[in-house]
Specification:
It contains 14 helices and 23 strands. With about 450 residues, it is of the alpha+beta class. The protein has a 7-stranded mixed sheet with strand order 3-9-10-16-13-12-11. The protein has a 5-stranded mixed sheet with strand order 20-19-21-22-23, with helices on both faces. The protein has a 3-stranded antiparallel sheet with strand order 5-4-6. Helix 2 crosses helix 10. About 30% of the residues are buried.
Length: about 450
């Protein structure tokens, strides 16, 4: 885990938040490669689960909602964790996560009796900090979908079953955040509320539930996770599920710090829409072919962006002990002597922050730099590319390996004579000469 954290800082994936002021505990900023990685995940999720499906639409709801939303949803009464405090060192912990009940894991002191701690961040609307102006940062994105259910029905006229997808920020005042970006107070969710007709039989909802279970497993495989060996399905038992859930599966992943929840899939029944109809007085119903009204039930696939980032970083991280790569004659001296241990992020090609790195063989040869810039400009409109002329070729290869770039392209003296370039594969380290006019077609087959 320390190696991943170090690489993220060194290579511009993830930085400690407000670092020049000493940082803020468990808050993180995403650097140039980190934001590209996040965007690739979110864009692919949106395309796969919203744009490519005929039964899905999207939305983007506000972060600060009418406080009545959280009364109706039950968050004001139920969204809490048991908090205990050490009487000696004054550190606070979640009571249900202590290895030894009543004993402080830091100093061994005695713990206080547990009390419920609401996880929602409280704020105020307007200049006066008065109770009538209290509002909350949303602790989940789901309620923004439920309160817009009527608007979606009125404008889009969807037929059941259908879903509403959303990507957005959520905030939870966690008692004990930690494990790098695994548990933070500010995070992003990729959530779907999939509305189905009320079950006529007790198990009718299971068809939709099973469909989304398979979709989530396919998504994890697409991310490059080893679904057979590193992903586990936990059926959350009665008494441990959220108050609205009739069935929940936690998809757990084998992180470096243990097996922890990555995603969740819940059958929320009709709880949320009924609650919002009751508190708001709005008509949140559907009508069947006979004209009878009913409240739809809901299947909810919930995916966290940050936990996805952490899982793919761990899955992609690789240290290889190999012989030095076989360089092309044009720049053989540039890779000789490189260490035979390399760190490489083996992201799936679609997920890699940078797809192609373009190098001139030598930075002090204007004709090579000019030609490399021309090739870079040719490719950058189609792919996220990076131009690099800093250091020798071997070091540039290693730098690109550590950020997961699938292909490195070198413009050398043969390029000026023959019009071809050397393309090096990240995973095999094999090199191939490709004509410049064929690069678009060549990369199209590899990256699309």
């Amino acid at each position: 885990m320390e190696k991943i954290v170090s690489l993220c800082k060194r290579r511009g994936f993830i930085f400690p938040d407000s670092e020049i002021y000493g940082g803020l505990a468990n808050a993180w900023d995403y650097g140039p490669y980190g934001v590209e990685l996040k965007n690739n995940i979110k864009q692919r999720w949106w395309k796969k689960f919203v744009q490519e499906r005929e039964d899905m639409v999207g939305q983007d709801a506000a972060i600060i909602m009418n406080p009545e939303t959280w009364k109706a949803s039950g968050h004001l009464d139920n969204f809490s964790d048991p908090l205990v405090e050490c009487k000696k060192c004054k550190n606070r912990f979640r009571a249900d996560q202590l290895e030894e009940a009543g004993k402080c894991p830091n100093c061994g002191g005695q713990m206080s009796a547990p009390r419920q701690f609401n996880l929602m961040f409280k704020t105020f609307i307007g200049p006066a900090e008065e109770s009538v102006n209290i509002a909350y940062l949303r602790p989940e994105t789901a309620q923004g979908i439920f309160v817009n259910f009527k608007n979606i029905m009125d404008t889009m006229r969807p037929r059941l079953p259908f879903g509403i997808g959303q990507i957005g920020k959520a905030f939870r005042n966690e008692i004990t955040p930690g494990n790098f970006i695994f548990r933070t107070r500010e995070f992003e969710q990729m959530e779907i509320e999939y509305f189905i007709a009320p079950p006529k039989k007790d198990k009718d909802w299971q068809t939709a539930f099973e469909m989304w279970r398979k979709e989530m497993l396919n998504w994890m495989a697409e991310l490059g996770l080893n679904v057979k060996h590193d992903v586990y399905e936990l059926n959350v038992p009665d008494g441990e599920r959220a108050h609205y859930s009739k069935k929940t599966i936690d998809f757990e992943y084998q992180f470096p710090f243990g097996r922890k929840e990555l995603y969740g899939l819940a059958y929320r029944t009709d709880y949320d829409l009924k609650q919002h109809a009751k508190f708001s007085g709005a008509d949140l119903f559907c009508t069947d072919e006979q004209g009878d009204k009913f409240v739809p039930h809901v299947i909810e696939p919930s995916l966290g962006v940050e936990r996805t980032v952490l899982a793919v970083l761990y899955a992609a991280y690789c240290e290889e002990t190999t012989p030095a790569p076989n360089p092309s004659p044009a720049h053989s001296s540039r890779e000789k002597g490189e260490e035979n241990i390399r760190t490489v992020m083996k992201f799936p090609y679609w997920l890699a922050p940078v797809k192609i790195a373009v190098f001139p063989l030598l930075k002090n040869k204007p004709e090579l730099v000019k030609k490399a810039k021309a090739v870079f400009n040719q490719l950058k409109s189609e792919y996220n590319c990076e131009f690099d002329d800093n250091g020798n070729i071997g070091k540039r290869y290693r730098r690109q390996d550590e950020i997961g770039t699938p292909f490195c392209l070198t413009v050398d003296f043969d390029t000026l004579e023959k019009g071809d370039v050397t393309v090096r594969n990240r995973d095999t380290m094999k090199q191939e000469r490709v004509k410049i006019e064929k690069l678009g077609e060549w990369f199209g087959k590899k990256l699309k």
